[in-house]
Amino acid sequence: MNAPSADDLIWTRGTTEAIKLVARSYARPRLQPCDEILVSEAEHHANLIPWLMVSEQTGSQVVKLPIGTNRLPGSGASHHPGA
To answer: Which of 10, 36, 60, 68 could make an SS bond with 75 (beta carbons 3.0 to 4.6 A apart)?
Structure first.
């Protein structure tokens, strides 16, 4: 895993728990009301809900990026109106 030591690794029961951990313990203390959390409009519910909760707690905004014709989020479109 290329971590400097075993103390730098965090094990979780699964992806959903890991996403919640990142959203709550890493992102929440750093997010400000003017910040945006970018997610795909096709985001799985288990990934979307932790970010919606953190955005509500911090005043930040969840922005859903549209899926482009190449099936990649945000490709070929700006998420800022008028940009």
So the answer is: 68
pLDDT digits 0-9 by tens, 12-37: 999 999 999 999 999 999 999 999 99
Burial 60-74 (b: 16+ CB within 10 A, else e): bebebbeeeeeeebb
Instruction: Determine contact, residues 1/9, Cβ cutoff 8 Å.
Output: yes
Per cent of the chain over pLDDT 70 is 90
Residue 76 reports pLDDT greater than 80: no
**In contact, 72 and 80? CB cutoff 8 Å:** no
